[in-house]
């Protein structure tokens, strides 16, 4: 049975690596789970992402479901200066996700970005990863609207999304979160494609094991 373009594309990213200047986005695999699990023990990250700590086993389960779900697209954010010379786990700085949660409108993607490594914050890594994910959403998933739900206290993230042309559309005082939105008009689309024209889409498997390099 044919999946809608966006749903089919969610699975398409299983071998997609997006190379930018500062970051490379790669699919979330089992190899990334231990480091990710370590990050999520941080109370600060639990608060900022409104998430509960999981056991390592639960985190592996979660990774498998993310990989198979047709309404989620997730990439791990790696430091492009260090990868692929170093192992993924040593280069991980965060993750970026797209959710297709609006059954009435499959062209809306909810975007989330987390730069988990404190030393990488405030250096443009989150901005580039978000732009790359938005570019991927517009090009590959036919998205025309983006939403971001961010905790009211997370001023750095709210400020970053506003710089990326998102507008505040709602405040939920119960969940203490702000909803920001961007409608991708023709003008916004051109801007987004211009911002991400340096991004190259490659095969993750091929990049990970460069041709002619023997495993030691």
From TrEMBL:
<dbReference type="Pfam" id="PF13302">
    <property type="entry name" value="Acetyltransf_3"/>
</dbReference>
<dbReference type="GO" id="GO:0120519">
    <property type="term" value="F:tubulin N-terminal-methionine acetyltransferase activity"/>
</dbReference>
<dbReference type="InterPro" id="IPR039135">
    <property type="entry name" value="NAT9-like"/>
</dbReference>
<dbReference type="InterPro" id="IPR016181">
    <property type="entry name" value="Acyl_CoA_acyltransferase"/>
</dbReference>
<protein>
    <recommendedName>
        <fullName>Alpha/beta-tubulin-N-acetyltransferase 9</fullName>
        <ecNumber>2.3.1.308</ecNumber>
    </recommendedName>
</protein>
<comment type="function">
    <text>N-acetyltransferase that mediates the acetylation of the N-terminal residues of alpha- and beta-tubulin.</text>
</comment>
<keyword id="KW-0808">Transferase</keyword>
<keyword id="KW-0012">Acyltransferase</keyword>
<dbReference type="InterPro" id="IPR000182">
    <property type="entry name" value="GNAT_dom"/>
</dbReference>
<feature type="domain" description="N-acetyltransferase">
    <location>
        <begin position="23"/>
        <end position="167"/>
    </location>
</feature>
<comment type="similarity">
    <text>Belongs to the acetyltransferase family. GNAT subfamily.</text>
</comment>
